[in-house]
From TrEMBL:
Catalyzed reaction equations: a quinone + NADH + 5 H(+)(in) = a quinol + NAD(+) + 4 H(+)(out)
Annotated InterPro entries: NADH_DH_suC (IPR010218), NADH_quin_OxRdtase_su_C/D-like (IPR037232), NADH_UbQ_OxRdtase_30kDa_su (IPR001268)
Places the protein is found: Cell membrane
Domain NADH:ubiquinone oxidoreductase 30kDa subunit, residue spans: 36-153
Keywords: Cell membrane, Membrane, NAD, Quinone, Translocase, Transport, Ubiquinone
This protein's name: NADH-quinone oxidoreductase subunit C
PANTHER family in the cross-refs: NADH DEHYDROGENASE [UBIQUINONE] IRON-SULFUR PROTEIN 3, MITOCHONDRIAL (PTHR10884:SF14), NADH DEHYDROGENASE UBIQUINONE IRON-SULFUR PROTEIN 3 (PTHR10884)
One Pfam family hit: Complex1_30kDa
Presence of keyword Transport: yes
Topology versus the membrane: Peripheral membrane protein
Species: Fodinibius salicampi
Function: NDH-1 shuttles electrons from NADH, via FMN and iron-sulfur (Fe-S) centers, to quinones in the respiratory chain. The immediate electron acceptor for the enzyme in this species is believed to be ubiquinone. Couples the redox reaction to proton translocation (for every two electrons transferred, four hydrogen ions are translocated across the cytoplasmic membrane), and thus conserves the redox energy in a proton gradient.
EC number: 7.1.1.-
Length: 170
């Protein structure tokens, strides 16, 4: 597949494949956006490189997905924007089902802190060296991750105390 990259994104992709040839897995385009998949152990270095060298100073979003596959089940996606060059780049990392773990990028983009907490809370992906690693939506002692595909749509009965839905009677 031929890529239709702007000059700026072509430089970014060339730089990534040169600087991180061992960690650079693939690049593709979908719906007009460019996606780069890299190895998990290089994500912090690649993010630092993208921010400092190519001015991707804005982390617009960071989210997780459950691919529900036997290998590399979870995926973390970084939606990066270069305001100077008006370019968007999606950086993707795949993680195994057993002990999904990544280094935090909260030191690079402060906004990553809340988004990494959400990914942990919903999918169970751990972010090492996170400055405030704890659940964000679910109770601290909740042992499940509700966005995983095996989680029942109606929840797990008795796993969380809910308020009564019937009005008090006198």
């Amino acid at each position: 597949m031929d890529l239709e990259l702007s000059d700026t994104l072509k430089k970014v992709i060339d730089g990534l494949s040169d600087q991180f040839s061992d960690s650079f897995i693939e690049v593709y385009q979908s719906t007009g956006d460019t996606f780069v998949r890299v190895e998990a152990d290089a994500v912090v270095d690649i993010c630092k490189y993208l921010k400092s060298t190519h001015h991707f100073i804005y982390l617009n979003d960071l989210f997780g997905t459950d691919r529900f596959t036997s290998e590399e089940r979870f995926e973390v996606v970084y939606n990066l924007i270069s305001l100077r060059d008006r370019e968007r780049l999606f950086l993707k990392v795949r993680l195994p089902e057993e002990d999904p773990r990544l280094e935090s990028v909260a030191d690079i983009w402060k906004s990553a802190s809340w988004m990494e907490r959400e990914v942990y809370d919903m999918f169970g992906v751990h972010f090492d060296n996170h400055p405030d690693f704890r659940r964000i939506f679910m109770p601290e002692d909740y042992e499940y991750h509700p966005m995983r595909k095996e989680f029942p749509l109606l929840g797990i009965p008795g796993s969380i105390e809910l308020p009564s839905t019937t009005p008090d009677t006198e």
